[in-house]
């Protein structure tokens, strides 16, 4: 097969259907940008989980005098020194526990004043109203239930809380947004495939006389189909390249510059450029192969004589 003939036919096909080719490029670019964005969102959520789950603690709040008067869980009175020693000793014996930190009522009051000093309630609180607690860091954050089962309902313990529960709500929201992006991406891919099929068929119909002559002189089906397949592949590759550009520009302006989220939100460990660059070959490969395969199957029946 002469490469010059194939390239000339590709150029003719792209020029004849310039409007539809443009629509294919745009739809492929948008769908693949959403695809790459959803992959990066998944990586971002995984990075955040690894970063924050490593920092969360299980808090064992101890009964104080105020709790003994109001909370049925503390009906036996405020926690005693013996009970605190027993809880601390049991925690250190548990294989799932990494470290244990004891926070006194005075320390809890100090931390509250530092974080919520402007709150109207802060002026009415006193140190004796604050709860002592043990801040427990687990070797595996998923093993919270082991600690909760061991200490919930014990004398002197008011409650056992897992900070991971608060993060799970955030991650569920982010995962929901990611699935929404995937749904939009799937819709855009369907639109792109329909445009590719229609573009290829219009191009084949406009050159039906040439393809008929080629068939009569003994040209193979693959030889006849190749220019149309390459047209779709070139349009898809251009769309994939645009999608890669969108991902790079989005990462640059949203995280590093422009919005500069990395500077404004220091609490989030954002994914790096290596994660973005790792997705670009996949985006380009899909941009090239998806239109080519769609064109191949669309033409199999159409060009049979």
From TrEMBL:
<dbReference type="Pfam" id="PF02687">
    <property type="entry name" value="FtsX"/>
</dbReference>
<dbReference type="InterPro" id="IPR040690">
    <property type="entry name" value="FtsX_ECD"/>
</dbReference>
<dbReference type="InterPro" id="IPR003838">
    <property type="entry name" value="ABC3_permease_C"/>
</dbReference>
<dbReference type="Pfam" id="PF18075">
    <property type="entry name" value="FtsX_ECD"/>
</dbReference>
<comment type="subunit">
    <text>Forms a membrane-associated complex with FtsE.</text>
</comment>
<keyword id="KW-1003">Cell membrane</keyword>
<feature type="domain" description="FtsX extracellular">
    <location>
        <begin position="56"/>
        <end position="160"/>
    </location>
</feature>
<keyword id="KW-0132">Cell division</keyword>
<keyword id="KW-0812">Transmembrane</keyword>
<dbReference type="InterPro" id="IPR047929">
    <property type="entry name" value="FtsX_actino"/>
</dbReference>
<feature type="domain" description="ABC3 transporter permease C-terminal">
    <location>
        <begin position="183"/>
        <end position="301"/>
    </location>
</feature>
<dbReference type="InterPro" id="IPR004513">
    <property type="entry name" value="FtsX"/>
</dbReference>
<keyword id="KW-0472">Membrane</keyword>
<comment type="similarity">
    <text>Belongs to the ABC-4 integral membrane protein family. FtsX subfamily.</text>
</comment>
<protein>
    <recommendedName>
        <fullName>Cell division protein FtsX</fullName>
    </recommendedName>
</protein>
<keyword id="KW-1133">Transmembrane helix</keyword>
<feature type="transmembrane region" description="Helical">
    <location>
        <begin position="232"/>
        <end position="255"/>
    </location>
</feature>
<comment type="function">
    <text>Part of the ABC transporter FtsEX involved in cellular division.</text>
</comment>
<feature type="transmembrane region" description="Helical">
    <location>
        <begin position="179"/>
        <end position="200"/>
    </location>
</feature>
<feature type="transmembrane region" description="Helical">
    <location>
        <begin position="275"/>
        <end position="299"/>
    </location>
</feature>
<feature type="transmembrane region" description="Helical">
    <location>
        <begin position="21"/>
        <end position="41"/>
    </location>
</feature>
<keyword id="KW-0131">Cell cycle</keyword>
